[in-house]
Specification:
Its main location: membrane. With 649 residues, the chain is α/β, with parallel strands linked by helices. It folds into 4 domains: 1-108, Ribonuclease Inhibitor (Leucine-rich repeat, LRR (right-handed beta-alpha superhelix), Alpha-Beta Horseshoe); 152-261, Ribonuclease Inhibitor (Leucine-rich repeat, LRR (right-handed beta-alpha superhelix)), CATH 3.80.10.10; 321-411, Phosphorylase Kinase, domain 1 (2-Layer Sandwich), CATH 3.30.200; 418-645, Transferase(Phosphotransferase) domain 1 (Transferase(Phosphotransferase), domain 1), CATH 1.10.510. The chain is built from 12 helices and 31 strands. A hairpin with a 4-residue loop joins strand 24 (343-350) and strand 25.
Length: 649
């Protein structure tokens, strides 16, 4: 057994590694190891668990991996491997898990890999540059629980053999070029819970069998599906199901805001002339009366609600001013959650879903508010991630006085925002428990995950431009969600525009204390600007001090303050609440027995690492800042170390 995961180890793997012939477990993930994997690694024929993920390894994956016939789990994800997937992996006949995601692998998926029937935990080939079709051999993965092929260049139809994957619970094939209909045989995948086929070229009608599956999340967005949207099963919820970007769809429940379906009457069903005369004679008065009543009813409603109805685009905007007025009790101050640069946020109860939501009402008298609304809609209608605040719907219309009205409706976050937890007012200080060390680490990781998705895993980089604690919202389990995309910018490759050329008149101002210094000199919008804000946020989370604290004057700022403390005694900069927690943990003996003597030392190491990450991310020069992916990797490694010493109950 050899484990040195999540450290700062650099250099290359020596060819002498092949001499460790009795090694069964090798963990080196989360370091800075570079270069090629030596061919001699194939000599480790007793290896069962091998993790080299989250490094900087490059070159091709050696064919000698096929010699590791006892291998159970293999992680080579998040490196820079290129070339094709070695077909020799077919020899690993007891492999349960294979993760080759987030590399630069190309070529076709070897049918032999899809034929590894032993795979049962998951197979992850996502975020590479794989081409061609999905091999028919996928049907042999009858024990597989999760398959990730998203973010490649796979094409042609999804093979019908996939219906044999009866144990599969999660299937991700989004962001490829699959075409044609979804195979009807997929109805046999009774265990399927999550299905994401968005951003492909799939066509035909949406299969009715999807209603009968136990799906909790279904994304069919941005394909070419047509016809009537089913109304049963997962299609009962517009939150669990996404169908935006399919312009030929119709029907469905009102929440999807699709046009009605119209069907032409067949000639052979037309009633004969005599029957028409008889029917018209009998029902003339009743029929005409009903028709006139309906016409009048719809005319009356159209005129009554013209001023309050919302506009609809791609099924996205569909609630009215009246709905939101009622949901918030007339925008009552008792439901006011907070106020921002461009408006106010209220707590509301929507009649349509009977769910509690957060409703952001734009103050359109503020300069840039309309552009902020457009920017936020543009971002939020495209992206979806567990650590981003989910937008449920939006409204763009008029109030009862004929004034422009715009609002966004979000998933409600019961624990408010991070700023309220870090700097509670007197009443909140008594009501809420304090943020623990582990909670702060988890929230920092959540925010880093969100930024990593925005910067690296969407079709083009998205820059948030206003990251700060009040824009990090916390759900009932204290998971962090990044919100407020009113200043966000898309950055198409090779077209990073200067601030003065931004299409929005708002300009990327961000918030004082969190905005990257280069923005003040007119530098281009970049993901490194978000990294700066993230660094300041991390320092604030672990020092308990705002970047605009009164103590910061005469050239001293939060970055310099923590950097100086790091060189002296880091505990001078740490939030006293955290220091008190560590002391109480030791008194209550929640520290694991095997780590008791060095618990403070180890926890202090974690605190030092957190501060180092915050400092490195908030350097004045953007070139010196680490990438958010690297920050995320170090945070995850640090959390693992922390959990080794803290026993949670």
């Amino acid at each position: 057994m050899f484990g040195l995961a999540y450290n700062y180890i650099s250099g290359t793997l020596p060819s002498g590694i092949g001499n460790l012939i009795n090694l069964e477990l090798f963990e080196m993930q989360g370091n800075n190891i570079s270069g090629n994997i030596p061919f001699e690694i194939g000599n480790l024929n007793k290896m069962k668990y091998l993790d080299l993920g989250y490094n900087e390894l490059s070159g091709q994956i050696p064919e000698s991996f096929g010699n590791l016939r006892l291998l159970i789990k293999l992680y080579l994800d998040s490196n820079n491997f290129r070339g094709s997937i070695p077909s020799s992996l077919k020899n690993c006949q007891i492999l349960l898990l294979l993760n080759l995601s987030t590399n630069n692998l190309s070529g076709y998926i070897p049918p032999e890999i899809m034929g590894l029937s032993s795979l049962s935990i998951y197979l992850d080939l996502s975020r590479n540059s794989l081409i061609g079709s999905l091999p028919e051999e996928v049907g042999k993965l009858q024990n597989l629980g999760e398959l990730r092929l998203n973010g490649n260049r796979l094409s042609q139809q999804i093979p019908s053999s996939i219906g044999s994957c009866i144990s599969m619970e999660h299937l991700y094939v989004q962001d490829n070029f699959f075409e044609g209909p979804l195979p009807s045989i997929m109805s046999s995948m009774r265990g399927l819970q999550v299905l994401n086929v968005s951003n492909n070229q799939l066509s035909g009608q949406i299969p009715k069998f999807l209603e009968s599956l136990n799906l909790t999340n279904l994304s069919l967005s941005y394909n070419d599906f047509e016809g009537a949207l089913p109304t049963g099963g997962v299609f009962r919820s517009a939150i669990s199901t996404s169908v935006v970007g399919n312009k030929k769809l119709c029907g469905g429940l009102p929440d999807f805001q699709l046009p009605k379906c119209y069907y032409k009457e067949s000639k052979w069903t037309r009633i004969s002339g005599i029957a028409k005369i008889l029917i018209s004679t009998i029902s003339a008065l009743v029929g005409v009366a009903c028709i006139l009543s309906l016409l009048y009813f719809f005319w009356f409603r159209q005129n009554k609600n013209a001023s309050a109805s919302s506009s609809s685009e791609d099924g996205f905007l569909h609630v009215s001013y009246h709905n939101l007025l009622k949901a918030t009790g007339g925008f009552s101050s008792t439901n006011l959650l907070g106020m921002g640069n461009f408006g106010s946020v209220y707590r509301g109860l929507l009649d349509q879903t009977q769910s509690v939501v957060a409703i952001k009402i734009l103050d359109l008298t503020c300069e840039g508010a309309p552009k902020s609304f457009i920017a936020e809609c543009e971002v939020l209608r495209r992206i979806r991630h567990r650590n981003l605040v989910k937008v449920l719907t939006a409204c763009s219309g008029f109030d009862f006085n004929g004034n422009d009205f715009k609002a966004l409706v979000y998933e409600f976050m019961s624990n408010g925002n991070l700023d309220e937890w870090l700097h509670p007012i007197a009443s909140q200080y008594m009501e809420r428990k304090k943020l623990s060390l582990l909670e702060r680490v988890n929230i920092a990781i959540d925010v880093a995950c969100a930024l990593d998705y925005l910067h690296h895993h969407y079709e083009m980089p998205i820059v948030h431009c206003d990251l700060k604690p009040s824009n990090v919202l916390l759900d009932d389990e204290m998971n962090g969600h990044v919100g407020d995309f009113g200043l966000a910018r898309f950055l198409p490759e090779a077209t990073h525009k200067l601030l003065v050329d931004q299409s929005s008149s708002v300009g990327v101002k961000g918030s004082f204390g969190y905005v990257a210094p280069e923005y003040g000199t007119g530098s281009a919008v970049s993901t490194q600007g978000d990294v700066y804000s993230f660094g300041v946020l991390v320092l604030e989370m672990f020092t308990g001090k705002r970047p605009i604290d009164d103590m910061f004057e005469d050239g001293l700022d939060l970055h310099r303050f923590t950097k100086a403390a790091l060189a002296d005694r880091v505990e001078k900069a740490i939030d006293p609440i955290l220091l008190q927690e560590i002391e109480e943990l030791e008194k209550r003996r929640i520290i694991a027995p095997e780590g008791k003597n060095k618990s403070w030392c180890s926890i202090k190491d974690c605190l030092v690492l957190m501060i180092e990450i915050g400092i490195t991310c908030s350097f004045e020069s953007s070139k010196e800042r680490m990438d958010i992916y690297d920050a995320l990797t170090k945070l995850q490694g640090m959390r693992k170390k922390l959990l080794e010493f803290i026993v949670t109950v």
